[in-house]
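---------- Forwarded message ----------

FYI, see the Hexosyltransferase record below. Original note from H. follows.
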Amino acid sequence: MKCPAGLRVLLLPVCVSLALLGLRLQQGAREPLAASPAFSWREVPGGNGTAGPAAPRHPLQPPYPYPYRFLLNEPHKCRDRAPFLVLLVVTEPRDTAGRHAVRHTWGNESAVGGVAVLRLFLTGVHPVFGAPLQRVLEEESALHHDILQQDFLDTYNNLTLKTLMGLEWVSKHCPDASYVVKADHDVFLNLDYLVRRLLQPQLPPKRDFMTGYVYRNTGPLRNKAYKWYVPPEVYPNETYPPYCGGPAYVLSGDLARRVYGAAQALPLINMEDSFVGICLHALGVRVTSSPRGLFNMYKIAYDKCRFSRLVMVHHYGPRELLQLWNRLRCPQHPSRYCPFCSA
């Protein structure tokens, strides 16, 4: 008897999680599926100034540029429109529940009235359950038409490849988009406030614009105990250029295309948000600081008025996100000062 597709989608994350308890990913799971070219840092503005021969690629350096193939693509979504905002949501292949929650909350393309929003999820290939998950992803893609996937392994150290896949898609298939938001699946986003407060669709689109939670004067962690470990062979400098924290940031459409172009000439690092900052540095573009408190890198206590006047809060699971969204969007008790109801 064939199991219904809906039931398979609900059970799959549980089965995958249980199976992962009995498996230890080999070091090779950190690597993209493709072969690995070699490159050096001598072309990077702000590098260490040396111009020796290109060293072999470090295992933490994803191969790039490289002709990764789209396994799932939506090349025609911008054929008849130029959206005001393209929403690129980072997700894992197995996270069906997370994608469901985003589609029904802040990722709903109708969430911002009067503004064209286009949503796409970014994913790679699961390093262990690639084949069975691929069938599920293909069913989900056929139903929602909102998943992009390339043939690199979906690991933490390949997050940079995910973002570049999204920027590649925008550059090739939606070059007239006014703005691009890259967001993780485990955030709360207030797109309506972002659009009305920062992007202001009644005005001409900004150019060379990027904002979010800005980090300045930070550097790579050299301790292998951290998942954010970056060895000198990958990035030799002691500090990163200013960059926006990875959970969510905003780029103007023109800058999204320029960052993708700059990435073709720079050696990648395994810290996605820092690498985007390196691209900005190479382009001579500065990040724009957002008003204090709009982008929250840590989870904060829910407050009706506060949440109606911020853009992002990090660390929300699918169930929490659905519950929070219902509390924010319920229609009772409208207020002049708080657009959402009391909860």
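H. also flagged this: Residues 1-14, 16-53, 332-337 have pLDDT under 50 and may be disordered.
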